[in-house]
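Hi V.,

You were right to ask for the full record rather than a summary. Here it is.
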Amino acid sequence: MNASAQTLAGKTIIITRPADRGKALSEMIETAGGTAVHIPVLEILPPANPAEIQPQLQALKDFDIAVFVSANAVNGARVLLAPNGLPDTLTPAAIGRSTADALKAWGFPAGFVPTQEYGSESLLALDALNQVKGKQVAIIQGGDGRNLLEETLVQRGAEVSCIDVYRRATAFQQKHALLDALNKNNPILTATSTQSLESLLEIGGDAGKNNILNAPLVVLSERIQAFARSIGFKNNILVAAERSDSGILDTLREYPTA
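Predicted structure:
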């Protein structure tokens, strides 16, 4: 890679991750010479009624596997299960690297995690999740997610329970910051979920819709890429080289300076 390809000088990148998830990517972009604008379009909130979740969490002692679908799922469970944490009899599974890192930081390293591509499909390809007949599997999530994990594990003979340990809400308070950023320097957008794309459009409203849909976009997967096209994104929509901050950064370099 030549020197010009290594720099993000002259590029402004809008990071849409929740407040506690965008710092590392922002720092990487700034180190590479770009301008990072962190606009969390989703708020991560505790369950509306945490007491209702407690019986499900206490029942984890009877489960074999707990699949954590995100670092937010780990952090939500960590708060709700404090101070005891996960039962020793349970094997945690992580959907990707950041989720595995969050489990490790909690003191409960993932028993299995995809080593190449990350996501539901890669996790389901692991031998451990192909041999779940008769096992009790909990999916620790935030609600309103994909049904692929649950449906596939049930088809494979597992008894599956989904536990929503957090919820997402559109951060409408970011409207001014978003419109201001969109009107400057032809920014590149990044999105790590379909929900973040929906929230972008909700926050931007009529005033920001055209700039949002015409902005270059980097996403984490072909599924999110297809969703972006389905809701009207018109410019280049690139899939990150891998589902990680480093993968997003490498792909951001591919865009010419505006």
